[in-house]
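Q: How would the structure tokens look for this protein?
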Amino acid sequence: MGTTSGSSSSNHGTKDTQISAPRRFLVHFRRPIKGGYNGSYGFDWLRDEYIYDIKKVVQAGSKPKRFYRGNVHDLIKEYTTLKPGNSTLSEVTEIGNTSEAYVPAWLGIFPDRSEVELYLQIDQLTTDDNKPLSSNDSTVLEFSTSPGIVVSPTKIALKKLITKGQKSRKLVRSGEQTDGENGYSRNIKYYVDESIKINIKATSSSNKARFIKVIAKRGKYQRKVGVLMIYPNRDIPNADIVIVHLCTKSGATTVPTPPAYQHYLKYRSFNQALVRGEVKGISWLNLIDEKNNHSLLSTKGKALHKFLLKYPPNTNVSRSEGSNLKKDIVKLYELFSEKYVPSGGIEGTNNNNKTFVIFTDYKVKTGIYTTLGSAQAREKNMVENLFDCTFNDDCFSKVWGNAVVLFDKGNIQLDTFAHELGHSFSLPHTFSSSSLTRHSFYQGYTDNLMDYSYLLDRTGKESGGTNPYKHHMWSLFKWQWDLLRKDQSIK
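A: Here is the predicted structure in token form.
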């Protein structure tokens, strides 16, 4: 669009050009998807497919559905407030004078840690989308930041961001899925160029949410058109991990583990929630060697004999017995470990701030279906916990324990390793529909760490297809950051 809206002649015979206000659009921060992101920083935003009926869900039939199964407004509130129950952030309401509600993205970044590179998405408002944005537009986007947040560049020309041309996406909400709203449909015309990076770093910490505001300026006119919220990063808790190798081959002291899992823990996983995960000890337990070292009349000898009789090495354990195997492994390790297990045991509520990851060479399999790993639930009855925990985020640490057991092929998969650790840190599945789950999605449609890599068919069986993000399921939602940081084993 041209930058002049009129002109007049001065007494000197020159033209005085009138600069018009910037076009109507919103700016959103975005990160790469799939191969461009590995969980090395926290970034979450409200995806279109979560709240609009734009993609098909195999389990739900042939009509497009939204992936989120709850009240859309509850999910939107997660991104427009710092915590549930809080009022909408003022940084969001400042961009409220538009026909479309603005929902910001959130960035979780350590102070004095390496920079993050994001890109921008420009959405034209439907009140001003009859013409594409012009390559001659003189509008400049300037970034205004909270103290301690540094952005480079500090400003960028709008025309530089729109050179790849206008695109369009259709957003639909059917009346049956909008929690009482009338259905509607609209086309959003937008621009995106992932090659143009916005570099962000935090040079200090804060116990409050901070921001990067985007201001569109042209001449004397300016308008707030976007914001990126920065998650509070003053308190950085630790997640201390003890690694256990449980072997059933004589002479062995290790079983296979995921590649570079210690680096992953420290730099790629739960640091999304600004939690530092680190291995604080490595131990091993060889069942065959220990059996030969203990009399059948001793406490340890009896326990080993009973365990090996129930779970013979080199045989498949049925999936129905997987939960019992997990519990029995934890109990057996508690009996033999004197160095790492605190008094009161691994699930001791007050004494244990460590999480145990037990790698085993057991196979848990029935037919074509294999269990790769499992998180230990606390001994308290799960049903009782479900009732106790209604509407209470703190309940998660009452249900999930401090131990993770991995089986056979699950030993070498980073995503399985992190998924089961996520459970031990109070995170339910993204598709869980119990009272423990703040938000529930259809299974297999997100890149979230707590989703599954396969879909369900119309009957609810495991044959509906593959998650489109398989092998790239590293992310955590902003509301999961809140839950994880509250877990009792994270200090």
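The radius of gyration is 27 Å.

The first strand starts at residue 4 and ends at 9.

Upvote if useful.
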